[in-house]
Amino acid sequence: MNIQTIENINELEQQIAALIAIEPRFAPVHKQVGTPNLRHNAGGFEQLMRAMVGQQLSVAAAASIWKRLVDAELITPQAIREATDDTLKTQGLSKQKTRYVRSLVDHDIDFAALETLPNEEAITTLTAVTGIGRWTAEMYLLFSLKRTDILAVDDLAIKVAAMELLGLAERPTPKQLKDLTQHWSPHRSAASLLLWSYYGSLRNKTAVPL
Predict the structure, then answer these.
(1) Can you give the residue ranges of the HhH-GPD domain (predicted)?
(2) How many CA atoms lie within 13 A of 67 on its CB side?
(3) Which CATH number fits domain 9-38+149-202: 1.10.1670.40, 3.40.640.10, 1.10.150.20, 2.60.40.60?
(4) What is the pTM of this model?
């Protein structure tokens, strides 16, 4: 299977052009917000662990705990295996987050193999880990695996921006949004990036999905 990815800004602009051809209402949005940053990351165990640590925390609190874990050299599978729960708690991990991180270690994901899996199979592999929901998995596919066709229909910012873009009377449910945007495929990652930027302009702030 040929896995489609967005590797650079030029490829993103090609994706946006194709998206606008399908959904012309993106044209004024693109003109307003410009071409979004890709915000790619290296992925792997560390990226997923950091996403778990940051769940339901402020950006500042998540950054503080992550720095403590980095300083204590507690960000690899081997280090987590060898650490006691009390050691992880000392660095700021709650009992629930400790359970999540240990589940990530136990699942021993083959991150290289993940790059060759179709989107839904990759999401299934990731969400098998306790503490990784579909949204976190989709963020991994979008920003770490660079997939072209990811629209996070559970994301609040995307729902709000899509409501404005599509002229809806109220915020769509995830199912409604999925149905309304099915024809944007296979360019839904470009749509996600534009909608986040659009949400930021609507709220006069930058929306940070991950």
Answers:
(1) 53-202
(2) 6
(3) 1.10.1670.40
(4) 0.92
